[in-house]
Amino acid sequence: xxxxxxxxxxxxxxxxxxxxxxxxxxxxxxxxxxxxxxxxxxxxxxxxxxxxxxxxxxxxxxxxxxxxxxxxxxxxxxxxxxxxxxxxxxxxxxxxxxxxxxxxxxxxxxxxxxxxxxxxxxxxxxxxxxxxxxxxxxxxxxxxxxxxxxxxxxxxxxxxxxxxxxxxxxxxxxxxxxxxxxxxxxxxxxxxxxxxxxxxxxxxxxxxxxxxxxxxxxxxxxxxxxxxxxxxxxxxx
Length: 237
What we know:
It is a multi-pass membrane protein. It is found in: Cell membrane. Belongs to the AzlC family. InterPro entries: Brnchd-chn_aa_trnsp_permease. The chain starts with a helix and ends with a helix. Helix content is 76%, strand content 0%. It contains 12 helices and no strands. The mean pLDDT is 83. The protein has helices at 3-35, 40-50, 53-64, 69-79, 82-94, 99-107, 111-123, 129-140, 144-157, 170-179, 186-201, 210-236. It has 2 domains: 3-182, no CATH class; 184-237. The chain is mainly α.
């Protein structure tokens, strides 16, 4: 088997565990979106264009609450700001790819593809650029098509799913499975603790705007801790 084929199948295998939560996650979004008044085709178009589960949930829930359009847009953008950090983290590995490949990879940059790629590139940093690109596309192969299908299926058949199945379990489990392995440094842990604490303390704020404050506080905390650790390490050398 060629190195590129091996890289592709490693990517597929790395993302297979995410399938367990992608399906109920997508189905739940389809149900929530149709409850908010969207048609199945609108749900599918939303998933195809945005392809960001957390931002899609935030936008639909805020629209369902009657939030102003500006709040919907700002919250959705804030939720997706992590993609900028994902992009920066992957640039040393994938930044040398042709522009058209980077554009496609940017579209498919989701939590699962980032988690799989960052773990793979840390484990095998000496892979060629083309092997890394191939791995990346292998990682999105089982995830993104299932997200489209599951969200559309939830919109069409969601009403038939018994309430006791409690599909909403998929949302927290999906993010715990993605973020827990990434808490490797003091900065990561500090940012996570601050984000959770501030979000819980500001749960009373309208339209979930407390999440925006929590995100800003977490990023500031993580940056401050990382800067402190770098300065302390520099003093030791």
